[in-house]
Design brief:
Layout lengths: L1 E8 L13 H10 L3 E6 L7 E6 L2 E6 L9 E8 L3 H9 L3 H4 E7 L6
Antiparallel strand pairs: 1-5, 1-6, 2-5, 3-4
């Protein structure tokens, strides 16, 4: 099953002073096991553009769609057997301690 893992900042990071997981090791391990299909860091929210159409009129605005201190800073597309495996993959990601990770299953529209 495929999961989109949104990598997000957080206003309340972990206070544990232990060693942080290494992102390069996390990427290499999950790429080699076929669990990480792709991923990337996103540009800053200052580069975001929001597009909406209301009553047939195009509305384009600068910035993210929500006013929030927590923002999506990257993503990883995962291929896991189930949600439990996806949670274990997310748990080992460095941003699980300094930010937060949101897992969402991808919906197959062909079914």
């Amino acid at each position: 099953m495929k999961y989109m893992m949104f990598v997000c900042s957080d206003t309340e990071p972990d206070t544990d002073t232990g060693d942080m997981p290494d992102i390069e090791k996390w990427v290499a391990e999950n790429d080699s096991r076929g669990r990480r299909l792709e991923g990337s860091v996103l540009g800053p929210t200052s580069a975001a553009t929001t597009v909406r159409v209301r009553n047939g009129r195009l509305l384009v605005s600068d910035g993210p769609f929500a006013e929030t201190k927590e923002v999506i800073v990257g993503y990883d597309l995962l291929e896991c057997a189930d949600l439990d495996e996806a949670i274990e993959v997310a748990r080992a990601h460095p941003m699980a301690r300094n930010g937060r990770l949101e897992l969402r299953p991808l919906v197959d529209l062909d079914d």
